Q: What sequence folds into this?
């Protein structure tokens, strides 16, 4: 064994080896909080096993991180399982006919949907498709990997992929499991670790007021938020600092406030603005650059020309907002941690939306509009394939999931009445590497 593993990591690795070496059980669940070493033991498993492993993740950002950590290519679950088709004017995912036998490792599995996925051509759940493919392929298995305390899929009440009981109840499968409990990312005296542990093992009646500030966890009021943000940005720059809030609407409002009050930017997009990618994009991949993934940060290096306004006006008596595009050069981070510049076309409409991306109606109209303008279809139109972005200074807990930054501010004023409750709070407070600010009121 090439790494120094803790007791629970050794036990997890032993169970994983047992799982891939036998034939009766086809599903394994590897659970553990952020920083517990799940990727570490998976790297060991892959390195010393002759099995074929297929690496996937639920998001593009998680797939890129997994590729870098495991030193093997990972793709999104959607790319591995589906081809793109079109139905009712919208791109839909259709099951691929081909299936590669092997051990599928799916990271960030807490986000896997168990409800029917509207983006699929047939009414199926993502977990259901995976389980059925595993059942139908004698030489295949799946390892679901994730943090059971993080946010469940949007609109669902549990993370089915990380629960033996739930998988058995829904899909009548047996599974093995291992749970890593010790967090190695922070030292034992870390306030961030102690707060996360308190949330995970909370006692009845526990509130944030019971948590005493520490050297790395501070409680601040909203009145000094911008002052502290400015101080941290001056020390770390914005790509190492994030502010996490509950809703897209609040994120939009705070993004504009921070741009104005801290960055000194005008209303319009500016050079050096920080952007958040809101949809995976493979159009701008090239040598040394994987796809630009949903949830990734990037920086505006140069703006080319003026904003293009396309498609607005009155149609059948109804007014439609135009689509707004801006050509420019952005800086993105590669898998090896370097920064690379890419010329792109940006779609700006998500910046003004109270949702994370275009809503279903807007998506359908967007696709149809550009499909009519290219004989091969919308996916060949450079405007349709534009990089979709929001401002990236502030993001929601769901967008933050799977990310990590040096310093994180978390708006906790309304977390107790949030429909996501403790899971939202836990997900948010486990994002920082070194310092956490709790914005209390």
A:
């Amino acid at each position: 064994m090439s790494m120094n593993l803790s007791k629970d990591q050794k036990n997890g690795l032993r169970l994983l080896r047992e799982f891939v070496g036998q034939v009766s059980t086809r599903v394994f669940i590897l659970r553990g909080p952020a920083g517990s070493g799940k990727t570490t033991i998976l790297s060991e498993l892959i390195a010393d096993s002759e099995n074929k492993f297929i690496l996937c993740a639920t998001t593009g950002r998680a797939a890129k991180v997994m590729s870098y950590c495991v030193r093997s290519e990972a793709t999104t679950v959607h790319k591995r399982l589906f081809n793109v088709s079109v139905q009712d004017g919208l791109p839909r995912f259709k099951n691929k006919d081909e299936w590669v036998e092997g051990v599928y490792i799916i990271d960030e599995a807490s986000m896997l949907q168990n409800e029917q996925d509207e983006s699929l051509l047939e009414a199926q759940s993502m977990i259901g498709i995976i389980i059925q493919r595993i059942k139908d392929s004698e030489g295949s298995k799946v390892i679901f990997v994730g943090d059971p305390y993080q946010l469940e899929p949007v609109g669902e009440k549990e993370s089915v992929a990380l629960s033996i009981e739930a998988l058995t109840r829904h899909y009548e499968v047996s599974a093995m499991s291992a749970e890593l409990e010790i967090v190695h990312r922070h030292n034992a005296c870390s306030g961030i670790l102690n707060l996360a542990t308190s949330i995970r093992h909370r006692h009845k009646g526990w509130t944030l007021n019971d948590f005493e500030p520490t050297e790395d966890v501070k409680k601040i009021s909203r009145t000094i938020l911008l002052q502290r943000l400015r101080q941290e940005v001056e020390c770390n720059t914005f790509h190492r600092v994030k502010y996490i809030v509950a809703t897209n609407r609040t994120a939009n409002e705070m993004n504009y406030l921070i741009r104005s009050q801290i960055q000194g930017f005008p209303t319009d997009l500016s050079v050096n603005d920080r952007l958040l990618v809101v949809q995976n994009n493979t159009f701008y991949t090239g040598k040394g650059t994987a796809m630009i993934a949903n949830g990734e940060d990037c920086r505006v290096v140069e703006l080319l020309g003026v904003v293009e306004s396309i498609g607005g006006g009155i149609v059948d008596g109804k007014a439609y907002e135009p689509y707004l595009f801006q050509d420019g050069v952005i800086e993105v981070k590669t898998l090896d941690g370097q920064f690379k510049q890419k010329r792109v076309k940006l779609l700006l409409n998500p910046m003004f939306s109270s949702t994370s991306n275009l809503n279903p109606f807007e998506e359908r109209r967007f696709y149809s509009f550009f499909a009519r303008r290219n004989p091969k279809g919308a996916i060949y139109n450079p405007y349709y394939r534009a990089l979709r972005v929001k401002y990236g200074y502030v993001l929601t807990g769901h967008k933050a999931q799977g990310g990590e930054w040096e310093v994180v501010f978390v708006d906790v004023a309304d977390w107790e009445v949030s429909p996501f409750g403790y899971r939202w709070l836990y997900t948010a407070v486990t994002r920082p590497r070194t310092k956490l600010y709790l914005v209390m009121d």
